[in-house]
Design brief:
The structure holds 2 protein chains of 2 kinds. Chain A is 0% helix and 47% strand. By secondary structure, chain A is mostly beta strands. Chain A has one domain: Sandwich (Immunoglobulin-like), CATH 2.60.40.10. Chain B has a single domain, classed as Sandwich (Immunoglobulin-like), CATH 2.60.40.10. Chain B is 0% helix and 53% strand. In chain B, strands 2, 4, 5, 9, 10 and 11 form a 6-stranded mixed beta sheet that branches. Chain B has a 5-stranded antiparallel beta sheet with strand order 1-3-8-7-6, with no helix packed on it. Classes of the chains: A mainly beta, B mainly beta.
Chain lengths: 113, 113
């Protein structure tokens, strides 16, 4: 079956522009996570969606970052007024429940010039 | 504050020998731990998990050990194979908590043929 997909795979943008990253989770997975991996660093938690509950946004680094999820389907991560330090690989993962393994997408590599 | 630490950024092991990857955590509330493997340009893939009610979990060549008193877990790969060469991340969460997974910074394993 289809895994987690993310688009675009690569995005180059100029500083100050807004970007939108998309994640299509595995069908039926109620949990969806966004992570960021900067060069040479580990995975940094950004935000977590679980069903209809309020999302856990505690990892979002600034108010320039926001994310939405439509029901238990697609999620978009939006970064406004991008800065060079936003350059990273943004990974999305979904799972069937908290203790279920997370299935990761291939990531979106964002480069802010 | 790095709650999950992988202090060895890299490790080289001869094919057929044992690979031991270590992970330390500081939050005593963590009660569920996972290991993920990541190849370049791909998202992480789940390897093995362990609950705090256990001290060992085995799956084929992979065994995870948990020492709660030391707040330490390790992943053993025996025998190591060249295809195991990847970056390994440990992750931890508190099941009854915020559902947020905290990842370590990763250890790059290179298995030499």
């Amino acid at each position: 079956g289809a895994g987690v997909s993310q688009s675009p795979s690569n995005k180059v943008t100029e500083k100050g522009k807004d970007v939108e990253l998309r994640c299509d989770p595995i069908s039926g997975h109620t949990a969806l996570y966004w992570y960021r991996q900067r060069l040479g660093q580990g995975l940094e938690f950004l935000i977590y969606f679980q069903g209809n509950s309020a999302p856990d946004k505690s990892g979002l680094p600034s108010d320039r970052f926001s994310a939405e999820r439509t029901g238990e389907s697609v999620s978009t991560l939006t970064i406004q007024r991008t800065q060079q330090e936003d350059s990273a690989v943004y990974l999305c993962a979904s799972s069937g429940g908290l203790t279920d393994e997370q299935y990761f997408g291939p990531g979106t590599r964002l480069t802010v010039t | 504050d790095q709650q999950v630490k992988q202090n060895s950024p890299s490790l080289s092991v001869q094919e057929g020998r044992i690979s031991i990857l270590n992970c330390d955590y500081t939050n005593s509330m963590f009660d569920y731990f996972l290991w993920y493997k990541k190849y370049p340009a791909e998202g992480p893939t789940f390897l093995i998990s362990i609950s705090s009610i256990k001290d060992k979990n085995e799956d084929g060549r992979f065994t995870v050990f948990l020492n709660k008193s030391a707040k330490h877990l390790s992943l053993h790969i025996v025998p190591s194979q060249p295809g195991d060469s990847a970056v390994y991340f440990c992750a931890a969460t508190e099941i009854s908590g915020t559902y947020k997974y905290i990842f370590g910074t990763g250890t790059r394993l290179k298995v030499l043929a």
